[in-house]
Amino acid sequence: MAGSTLASPSAEPVSGAAQTSAATSPGRETWKRFRRHKLAMASSFVLGTMILGVIVGPWLWPVPINEIDFSAQLQTPSLKHPFGTDDLGQDLLARMIYGGRISLAVGLAAMVVATFVGILIGAIAGMSRGYVDNFLMWVTDLFLSLPQLPLLLLVIYFFREQLKAVFGVEGGVFILIVIVIGGLKWMPVARLVRAQFMSLREKEFVEAARAHGATKFRQMVHHILPNAIGPVIVAATIAESTLSFLGLGFPPDIPTWGRLLSDAKDHLDSAPHWALFPGAAIFLTVLSINFIGDGLRDALDPRRVI
């Protein structure tokens, strides 16, 4: 036909691989990026194994945590007691399985509280201008300047008994510790989210999304939240262990990992295994969460090329 332009003979059709790559969902692309982070994958396996162990452990190792055997005091690891025993002859493996449920639950719940509060405050501050932003950042700086550990101890000292009376011993202390730790660990997330909002809200792709009718919530989820995953998820387990070590966490008869460390401090020479296993559990948990956070940050950051 006159005026028409023939396609170039050298032009090649789009390959199936290219079409498949173009159609890859964001979730699959994120998983592909995360798998390339070897330390994050290894840490996911370690943390998943620990979580699975504390869940199914009571069925695989049905030893009572408070069974006292004075003839087996401070025994080293053996087939009968794989992690050894404490000064009362109690099996440390059974106590670590029970305490691991509490320590990991406190850490994960506090992480959720801290992340939610931090994202909420940071998003409002980042999308606001003027006095709202200034006030929220003043509150954030105020919380950052507070001595957190003394404040944790003070709050627990004043409110522990009241919550125990309402929710029971374990439930009251659990709620209190989660609220206190989460309420004092949100500031880094808030500052990071605010910085990301202020950096990205004027970018061309955000303007394009806004022009297409994207809500502020959608802008937050798709452009800022992926970059705010990593910074805060480590501190919660450390804080719970610190409180238990100082004797202001869960009651002495509840063997959290921090409580086991506290009880073992007077027997480090005669029974180092007593402190070794809970200390290693805390160390591996914190290290794994740290590397998983790094992997998520790399996988979810659209500007990073792996």
How is the secondary structure organized here?
Elements: H1 16-22, H2 26-35, H3 38-60, H4 92-127, H5 131-145, H6 148-167, H7 169-183, H8 187-200, H9 204-211, H10 216-224, H11 235-246, H12 257-264, H13 272-300
Helix pairs in contact: 2-13, 3-4, 3-13, 4-5, 4-7, 4-8, 4-11, 4-13, 6-7, 11-12, 12-13
Structural class: mainly alpha
Mean pLDDT: 76
What overall geometry do the principal axes of the alpha carbons give? Answer: globular
CATH architecture: Orthogonal Bundle
Regions with pLDDT < 50 over 5+ consecutive residues? 4-12, 17-22, 230-240
Number of domains: 1
Fill in the keyword field for this structure.
306 residues, mainly alpha, MetI-like fold, 0% strand, globular
